[in-house]
Amino acid sequence: MQRPESRRRDRGYNQAELLAEYLATAIAIPFESAAIVKIRDTVPQVGLNFKERQTNVAGAFQALPTRVQGQRVIIVDDVYTTGATLRACAQALLDAGAIKVWALTVASARAA
Question: Based on the structure, what is the number of domains in the chain?
Fold first, then answer.
């Protein structure tokens, strides 16, 4: 199982993070990549069905209340397939006290 840090190291970048940072700069809002962290390993979502994707990322993220409490948050992802990761991240943000969470994606793919 490859951790996000190792995938980033292999690629040299995190495309969703680059998109989020560009968007934040373009519309003059704060960018906080460290507001949410992955707290457990997951398998890559590629090849998993809808239910497997939901289970794979459930509880895998934790948001930092000191950064998100009382805030409106935009999550940016590169590709929307089933929304499992976006939902898991949104739940972590809401659990940490965010008052509203929106998700933006660049592309949508059909779920396997």
Answer: 1
- Please give the model's pTM, rounded to 2 decimal places: 0.83
H-assigned helices in the chain: 4-11, 15-26, 50-57, 65-68, 84-95
- Cα separation, 21 vs 15, in Å, equals 10
Report the alpha-carbon distance of residue 29 to residue 23 in Å, rounded. 8
Which pLDDT tens digit goes with each residue over 92-105? 999 999 999 999 99
Residue 37 lies in a domain: yes
Cβ-contact 92, 61 below 8 angstroms: yes
Domain that holds residue 88: 15-108
